Amino acid sequence: MQLSRRVDRVRHHLRRPLAKTPHLWDVAMLARRGKRATLARRDTAIVIEGYLRSGNTYSVAAFTIANGADLHVGRHLHGAPHVLRAARLGIPCVVLIRRPRDAVLSYLIRRDTLSPDDALLEYLDFYRTALKAQDAFVVGLFDEVVNDFGAVVDAVNTRFGTSFSRYESTPDNAAAAFAIVEEMNRRECRGQLRETHVGRPSPQRAERKAELETLLDQPRTVALLRRAEECYEQYLDLAARFPARGQPPH
Q1: 0.90 exceeded by the pTM?
Q2: Among 78, 163, 168, 225, which is least packed by CB within 10 angstroms?
Q3: Whole-number Å distance between alpha carbons of 166 and 163
Q4: Is 248 a member of any domain?
Q5: Domains in the chain, number
Q6: DSSP per position, 11-68
Q7: Where in the sequence is the domain holding 136, given as residue range(s)?
Q8: Residue 250 lies in a domain
Q9: Given strand 73-75, what is the order of strands in its sheet?
């Protein structure tokens, strides 16, 4: 087990330069059939992309419920070069973001081979690289995504002049969205529903988060977390430029 954990961490760090190099990243995704299926292409309707545990699966489920399954959605590659690719292709894009402390704790439950520093460096890699295309995407704040994804769709329509149908947060739609989320998790996990992975609230994960909190108190980790918070603040500023519900930008 210890060897497999070390191997996973080595692979994680070897991939970091690739995750900041757009065209090489594109080639790597195109070479893998599973990744290629959700990579943005010229007929893609929208790209919805973010760091893991930032509302990715719920966003895609909600968008699909409102707009149908026939539209191709670029999604779930968790690489900032996907955002840059959407910008090059002129595709509407949503960058999902969650407060770094919450996102990292949730990610560490899903991928326990990594340290908090590993996860925070990945967070910084993603959002700093994506900022290169800041004029070509809408920010989807986690709380807004999970509470009123329709507002995110409004912001996309305002920013890009699109006419996507907004998702309405009704009990029936929420149940349908979570059903899609769970089905995606089963496909990812060979037919099993894994509470550490599924993109919805989970009491088991909440308990584990509390256990992991102390890991974020180490001096180096505190410094990285501060840098991640500063990056998050930049995205809050970007979100204010294209508010939801068709209001004029600030």
Answers
A1: no
A2: 163
A3: 9
A4: no
A5: 1
A6: HHHHHTTGGG-HHHHHHHHHTSHHHHTTS--TT--EEEEESTTSSHHHHHHHHHHHH-
A7: 2-241
A8: no
A9: 73-75, 46-50, 93-97, 138-141
